[in-house]
Amino acid sequence: MNVGLFIPCYVDQFYPNVGIATLRLLESLDVKVIFPMEQTCCGQPMANSGFQRLSAGCDKNFIQNFADCDVVVGPSGSCVLHLKEHLHSSEQPEEAARLRGNVYELCEFLTDVLKVDALPKARFPHRVGLHTSCHGQRGLGLSSMSELVAPKFSKPEHLLRLVDGLDLVPLTHPDECCGFGGTFCVFEEALSSKMGKDRVNDHLRHGAEVITGGDMSCLMQLEGVLRRQKSSVRVMHIAEILTSGN
């Protein structure tokens, strides 16, 4: 299959190494990757602020860029969820529908499509805390929700446990929101900051050396708290850990 690599705009601008790690990871698994050079924002910031109509140009650009791809994979649960639920086109409704049904978050693609059950070269000998992002968990179904009486599962956790030497630390509140929420952190600054501090403290109490996750937007929120606290704890996207040692 031809896999289109979708790199969200904030990853491209602030965390380009995450995009590089995602490409390296997919290619190490013998995936043929296409990277459309004219891709840009998915339109989520406008939609989150109540201006869905302003994202029409983003929709058109996305469809044009990924028209030749069988599936699209991106290292951001929130952006992928937005595309799954809101990518539309009055000019190309069938192509928009096809892409909506074939866009995957990275961990989702690795576990559900590629069925990855081994990463023989990956090695990361550190204590790692996994941040479970709301969009990935509640929107994409990447992991079970702690408040439900149901079988427990986590696709990101499954992948992390394939990494040699990695010590995945338990958390008191494994799926609590970090407080980022896109524009929420701007309009509700005080509440957002307190939620971020609570999440960081949970990881610190359990001795995490690194905090990882599938959404750099959430990790950016936690990184800001860590920097202000002058902590030595790092944040790393899960793609960076899964390619460590390669």
From TrEMBL:
GO terms for cellular component: cytosol. Residues 3-84, 128-222 form the Cysteine-rich domain. This is (Fe-S)-binding protein. GO terms for molecular function: oxidoreductase activity.
